[in-house]
Amino acid sequence: MKLRTHIYFWLAALAVLIVFLYLFRGILLPFVAGMGLAYCLDPLADWFERRGFSRMMATIVILILFLIVFVLALVIIIPLLGAQTANFIERLPTLVTQLQARISEINAGWLERLMGEDRTAVQQSFSEFLKEGAGWLTGLLRSVWSGGQAILDIAGLFIVTPVVAFYLLYDWDRMMAKVNSWLPRDNAEVIRTLANEINTALAGFIRGQGLVCLLLGGFYAIGLSLAGLNFGLLIGILAGLLSFIPYVGSITGFLLSIGVALVQFWPDYLNIALVAAIFAAGQFLEGNILQPRLVGRSVGLHPVWLMFALFAFGSLFGFVGLLVAVPLAAAVGVLVRFALRQYLQSSFYKGHES
C-alpha cells in the first residue's frame, strides 16, 4: 500500500508538471532560459566564492561578463550570420542546380554497374533527391530564421532572462537547501542519491557538451571562412550547434560544406579536400580531446534517447520543449536505471527460491 501511494504521488507530480508546461509554454521561454543559465553558471559562482567573493558580488561579476559577451555576439556575429542565412536561402535553388551540373560531369559508370540502371535514371533520381532535400532545408531555415527574428522582437526575453538568472544564481544554494528540507524523511537519502545522479548527467552533458558545441562551432566557422568557402560562417556555426546531438552536426555540416565546395571550387580538388580536412580535424578534436576532457564517458544519455527526447518535447512544447528536453531525458534515464536496479533486486525477478 505504501509503495502504491508513492507511485501515485510521483505520477500525479509528473502529470502536474506536464500540464503546467503545456498551459504556460507561451510565456515560459525567458524563465526556463534564465533557470538554465543560472544552472550552468553556478559552478563559476562557487569558484568566485572560494576566492573570497561574496555570493552577490560573484553573481554581479558573472552576469556582467555574460552580458558583455552576449552583446558583442549580438553586434558582431548575428548581423553576419543573418546576412549569410538570408543569402543562402535565396541562392539555395541555384546552388542545387549547379550541384546537379557538377555531379553530371562525374563519370557515373561505377554507379550504373552497382545499381543496374542507366546513367539518365540515376541522375534523375539524384536530382529529385536534391530537390526534395533542398526544399526541406529551405523550409527549415526559413522557419528557424523567422523564429529567430520573432525571438529577437520579444524584448522581454532579453530583459526577463538576465533578471531571472540573476536572482536564481544569487539564491541557488539557499534554494537547494530549502528543497532538500522538503524531502520526505523516509526517502530523503534515496531522492538525494537520484538527484546527484541526475545532476552528474546534466553537468556532464549540458555544461560539457554545450562548451564542446561552442568550441566546434568556432573551429568550423573560422576554418571554413579562412578556406574561402561561401557561407562558411553559417555552415560552421550550424554544424557546431547541431553537434549537441551526436553525429548530426558533423554529418550535416560536412554534406553542406562539400556541396557548396563542389559548386564553388570545382574542379579545384585541393580546396575541396581542404574543406573535407577541416571536418576531419574537427572530428579528431571532438573525439580525442574535447569529449573526453569536457564531457567524459559517464553521462548516461544515449544518442538515440536524446534525439527522441528533443523531437518529442519539441513537438509538444515548442522551443521551451527543446530547452527542457535534455534535463527531463536525463532525469527519466536515471529513474529508469534506478527502477531496473530495484527490479533486479526484487523477489519478483529472483523468484520464490531466492
Q: Using only CA atoms, what is the Rg? A: 25 Å
What are the segments in which pLDDT stays under 50 over at least 5 consecutive residues?
A: 144-153
- The helix-strand sequence is HHHHHHHHHHHHH
**Beta strand %:** under 5%
The helix count comes to: 13
Task: Give the biggest sheet.
Answer: none
Coarse shape: globular
Residue-averaged pLDDT? 75
Helical residues, percent = over 70%
Q: Please state the structural category.
A: mainly alpha
How many strands?
0
Distance between the termini: 23 Å
Describe this structure in words.
This protein has a domain of 162 residues. It is globular and about 70 Å long. The longest helix is centred in the N-terminal third of the chain and has 51 residues. Helix 2 crosses helix 3, helix 8 packs antiparallel against helix 11 and helix 8 runs antiparallel to helix 12. The protein contains 13 helices and no strands. By secondary structure, the chain is mainly alpha-helical. Helix content is 86%, strand content 0%. The chain starts with a helix and ends with a helix.
Strand and helix map with partners:
Layout: H1 2-23, H2 29-50, H3 55-105, H4 109-115, H5 119-153, H6 155-170, H7 172-182, H8 188-226, H9 232-242, H10 248-265, H11 269-295, H12 303-344, H13 347-350
In short:
Helix content is 86%, strand content 0%.
